[in-house]
Amino acid sequence: MEDEQSFSDICGGRLALQRRFYSPSCLEFSLSCPRITLRSLTAVTCTVWLAAYGLFTLCENSMILSAAIFITLLGLLGYLHFVKIDHETLLIIDSLGIQMTSSYASGKESTTFIEMGQVNDVVINEAIYMQKVIYYLCILLKDPVEPHGISQVVPLFQSAKPRLDCLIEVYRSCQDILAHQKATSTSL
Amino acid sequence: MVLKAFFPTCCASADSGLLVGRWVPEQSSAVVLAVVHFPFIPIQVKELLAQVQQASQVGVTVLGTWCHRRQEPEESLGHFLEGLGAIFSHKPWFQLCRERGSKSWSCKATHWQGPASPAASGEDQVMLIFYDQRKVLLSQLHPPTALPNRQAGDTTASAGGLAAVFDTVARSEALFQSDRFDEGPVRLSHWQSEGMEASILVELAKWAAGPVCLFLACLLSLISAASACRVFKLWPLSFIWSKLSTCEQLRHRLEQLTLIFSTQKAESPAQLMRKANMLVSVLLDVALGLMLLSWLHRKDLIGQLADALIPVADHVAEELQHLLQWLMGAPAGLKMNRALDQVLGRFFLYHIHLWISYIHLMSPFIERILWHVGLSACLGLTVALSILSDIIALLTFHIYCFYVYGARLYCLKIHGLSSLWRLFRGKKWNVLRQRVDSCSYDLDQLRLLVVAVQGLIHLLVDLINSLPLYSLGLRLCRPYRLAAGVKFRVLEHETGRPLRLLMQINPLPYSRVVHTYRLPTCGCHPKHSWGSLCRKLFFGELIYPWRQRGNKQD
């Protein structure tokens, strides 16, 4: 079953959280980031072309204008393919692991999967980000050498950057599944 | 308790039968490797499994039953299937069932308590994970952090989660040897059951590789024995050999070729990748070199180059002399230290005079030498580039001398100024000559350009030497061979049915491919990179265009 809620990120943009409940042991959260606006696109294009036209009046070389067009197109394609993230998905499967997928605006998807044996816990941390103090959700990985130590912190939803209310929703569901998994693994 | 069953996608359309695979109790997961079809004789199935277990060191057993029917199985079939559970006893016993032509699956895992109390058998939930058997078999998993106690030659399958699944499938090749056209006692279904996958070219290459490798290995050992003879160890020759980058490059290539054509088989996948990378790199190098050679000969560039060399050298020497005359006077109105100016200026002028005489002496032989040097391009583009770099070094030796003197004096001046700055910040202030002395004038653009070009050529040769082309090609064309991990996708789900997931291979990013499979270079410029080159130019540290003694790899 599926449901959708609306939240906001740390800068005030609108985020949509979609939750899909496949089974008691499998849950998927999908957070979609604010889209690229026409205003920002027009602003960047106009700046680049004004600068190119200024250079053209100085140098009288028409190659500058074609170069500016190429740069704008390539820059836009590169931005959509490598930088702009459309939505981020978190899939938790009990006794298998946690998978994070980032889908870019051009359709490219980049996935990371962490096995349940390496996951110590999922927590909400505080961090100082520029001039703000923000909350973020992260996975703590087990240290192979020391049984109760932590070797790495993997932050989640880094591009979407949701606020605490959204994080609490995700956190509660993750903890349910992790608790269930720990109960069944200790009962073996 | 949720159990996981890894099921190969190729068996999803197979007929009913027995599930054969490995049970991993630590992960509570079952890896299904093949399906044994009816009719079969249980003794023969057990024999086959014992054989496979012996050959592959993987604990292959019968895990359960697989049922692919038009409708729900009847009562009698249900009892027959449960009866099989008594013959091949395995805890837990899986019963997978699928209706033909539909997407609804059902599976249950029972713990058989014994014929005395069938009602007390417990049932567990099962999660189905589909995987592509061929891709998982051929793939090599690259864990994110290299565990310190991971050995390459483990005889038992490792127990690290998904690595266990990959390992099980990779080791069970003995099970996949028979296809459905074989007349054996047991009929199996797996990824190769439609026919063994093989290629005529690969088989021919394997057959021919033996004698070819032997022959080339003998030839290469002869060459290395000849090059290691005592004559070349005498002092003037050994000094020249160690300084020329051509000799270093040739030695590096010889080592690589010896490694490629050695008659020992590669022990681990990493060694195999390294051999393959070296081979592809050598082939590409030779191909580029031959292209360069054909281009040079077509346009008769060598003759033109030889004719143009002497006038260019004369012109450069004249320009340098004019520059020195200008600097010995009052350049840009600056007043210089007259005595030091004259000394350095005359010293450099004498250098230029010597060099011009040397060039004029060599002029009749230039074309012959260039023609023979051009032939060396068929050994590889890197060799041609190294020779070019050596020629530039030899022809511009005088410029290099000027650069050394100028850079040393500039460096001294910079150090002196910095120590003065420290002194100024302290208690005493010594009023020394703060003015810019004659030797700290800017280096001539020509000198900078020549030294920078030499540095760039060396970096290019290093890049060509160390780039793992075969691994990059593999990542581009067969991305499932180099795996960074896996990714899961949830398939259509109906309530009441088991959860079905599709496991796909997540390929390794290009940066990690280059980082993991980078070939070792000859170690002659370990500290050089593009950033350090610029830094050295700016601070006046010397750049050595020749190989340094003691930097060679053992």
List keywords for this structure.
heterodimer, A: 188 residues, 3-stranded antiparallel beta sheet, 3 helices, B: alpha/beta, 7-stranded mixed beta barrel, 17 helices, 14% strand, elongated, disordered C terminus
- Total DSSP helices of chain B: 17
State the strand order across the main sheet of chain B: 1-3-2-4-5-6-7
| Major sheet: arrangement of strands of chain A | 1-2-3-4-5-6
> DSSP strand (E) fraction of chain A?
35-45%
Shape of chain A: elongated
Number of strands of chain B: 11
Report, as a whole number of angstroms, the end-to-end distance of chain A.
31 Å
Average pLDDT across residues of chain A? 91
What is the H/E order of chain B? Answer: EEEHEHEEEHEHEHHHHHHHHHHHEEHH
Q: How many angstroms does the end-to-end distance of chain B come to?
A: 57 Å
Pathway (chain A): Glycolipid biosynthesis; glycosylphosphatidylinositol-anchor biosynthesis
Protein name (chain A): Phosphatidylinositol glycan anchor biosynthesis class H
Organism (chain A): Phocoena sinus (Vaquita)
InterPro entries (chain A): PIG-H, PIGH-H_dom
